[in-house]
Prior knowledge:
Layout: H1 8-17, H2 46-49, H3 51-66, H4 75-100, H5 104-129, H6 132-152
Amino acid sequence: KHLSFLPASMYTEIQRERPDGGNILTHPDYIDGNPDLIKPKKLLNPVKASKSHQELHRELLMNHKRGLGVDSKPELQRVLEHRRRDLLIKQKKEEEEAKKLQSPFEKELLKRHQRLDQLEKEQEKQEDHEPEFIKVKENLRRTSTVTGDEKAA
């Protein structure tokens, strides 16, 4: 078993002469050349067989040959993104100018409106924390007072 003293060429010859038991991979039967056997075909990868994948691969190869990077975008797409960015910047500037042009009266109205919204939200939160039987009891009181008022009228 210790073959370290053998020259490298002798070791390779011994490896070649080993029986198939030492080989991990088994040899397929169709190599024998038996014409009765159906030879297996390699399965196609559905991703690589798709047209879109082939077109994308072709485009990447062409860009690579031209020297364009993968990150570079077509000119039309760059122009459209530039226009969108400019439009957003203009809209933000217009909004800022509109805020600057508000009179002190409009600003005060806006502050009051915001305060009222906050108060309404706080009241809703407080009402949500009350147990349900208190809400039902309040509704019963209202209906009893309404019916009592209607009887008096």
